[in-house]
Every structure is written in structure tokens, then in C-alpha cells.
Amino acid sequence: MVEERPVYQEVSEKELLARLAQSPASFHTLKSTVDMEVMSREMKSPRRLGGLLALEPPNKIRLKAKGAFIPDPFDLASDGETFIVHIKIEDRDEWYKESVGELESFKEFVLRPDRLAEAFLIAPLVPQGPGFDTTLEIYSDAYIVPVIYRAHGRTAVLKRVTVERVNLTVSEQVFFYEDGRVALVVCYRDYVDVEGAVLPKETSLFWPEEEFSLSLNLSRPKVNVELPEGIFTPKLPEGVEVIEISEN
To answer: Taking the alpha carbons of 92, 94, 100, 102 in that order, is the dihedral positive or negative?
Structure first.
């Protein structure tokens, strides 16, 4: 039996950047149960959880985990303007918050709700606007697009987007701090067609500085379904202390 060789596609830099400048999401809403695996520096071994993922392009996200012993061990919500994260694992019971605002530091760039939307592939992967630029690295099996910020006397690579040449799907995004440290790595695998929408069945997110990883596996995804009102704006418990991420 002869093993088939992969067929690598050729696209121009202009065409590739045009694809990345548009939202990869070809659906209005998505709702899916998810199998999750969470790991943090406080944990001795990964914890497997069930949960729910809801998306509404270009920037609304809700990822809520359910645990057998802890009712809500992880909850992430973004309405496009503000995102809130609740982590209740081991000895941690913390609420975090960050909002869209003027880009004053590269740390803020990485932690803004805009980047979450990019990480979940529901927003354009190449930011538009003054100061943003791109280059193209061509390899035998992949294209890599570094996104560069040149403004206010600063120049730095903010992220790198890897596109597989076999099917022109995004396989990885790496976000950086201004000093070059990796802030977030997101990997995508096993793209599937769900009613005409092509999306990764598996997504893995890793925050090296926080030593926190989150792996998602979609189960029974549905697109263009009605979502509950208020799903992207959960109410915080009264009196809870919220940590502003950019000030942390």
C-alpha cells in the first residue's frame, strides 16, 4: 500500500493576510458541551471536567465547567467589552476581570478581551489599525504570520499565527509580552464540519507564567442556535473581591 503524501497549498501573502483579517467563524452562534482538562501549579494531577461552551462572533464567549465535588470550578465570560474569570480549584477561589481600553502596554494587549476572541477563533486573527504590521515566514508545511506593533517608539512581536499548508487551517497562535516572554499558547486540532461551519474539535490553551493549562474537546456542537439571554454577562456574587488583571 502506497502512503499518500500530503498536498501542500500555495497562497500569496496578500491572500493569506486577507483570510486572517476576517473572522474564521462562519456561524452566528455556537453552543456545545465540552470535555475539559484543567491543570495548574497548585494541582498534583490534571482534573477532568464537563462543561458548556457558547460563542457569538465577533467577541462573546462563555466557558463554564461543572465538577463532581465543586459546582463551578472554572467560569470564563466575555461580552466583548469585559471578561471575567472565576477559578475555584484546590485552595484557589479567585475572580479576575479585565476590560477593553486604550493600548498602553503590551501586557494589556495580551490580556484584553480582544485576544480571547482571537484565541477562540471568532475574531479576525490579524489586528487592524495604526501601528500594526505583519510579515510572512514560509515553510514546507506551514505559513507563520508574526504580528508586529510599531508605535509610540516601540517595536515588538505581539503574536505568531501558524497556518497549516495542507488545509490552510490555523494550528497554533502564540501571544507574547513586550519583553518576548510567551504569554499564551493556543493549539488547534481535528477540524470538523458542523453544518457548514469548520471549527477545531480540540483546543488547548496554556499560560506559561501562570502555569495554567486548559484543554477543550467539543462534544455535540450546534451552530446558529438561540442562546439564553445574559449568558455572556454573569452576575458576580455580592461582596466578592475582583482582581483587575492589568493591575496585578
So the answer is: negative
DSSP 198-225: EEEEEEEEEETTTTEEEEEEEEEEEES-
Pairing of strands 94-99, 132-134: unpaired
Cell of 216: 477543550
In this predicted model, what pLDDT tens digit does every residue of 56-74 receive, in sequence order? 999 999 999 886 555 667 8
Angle (CA) 117-122-127 rounded to 5° is: 65
Domains of the chain as residue ranges with CATH: 13-225 (2.50.20.10)
The pTM of the full predicted model, rounded to 2 decimals, is 0.88
CA distances to 41, 73, 147 from 157, rounded to whole Å, are 28, 34, 6
pLDDT digits (tens, 9 = 90+) for 110-151: 656 778 889 999 999 987 777 889 999 999 999 999 999 876
* CA atoms of 236 and 74, how far apart (whole Å): 14
Neighbours of 46 (CB within 10 A): 13
Q: Which candidate, 177, 171, 138, 142, places its Cα nearest to that of 157?
A: 177
Q: What dihedral do alpha carbons 89, 203, 104, 150 form, nearest 10°?
A: 150
Are 47 and 73 contacting, i.e. CB atoms less than 8 angstroms apart? yes
pLDDT for res 239 = 79
What one-character DSSP code corresponds to residue 245? Answer: G
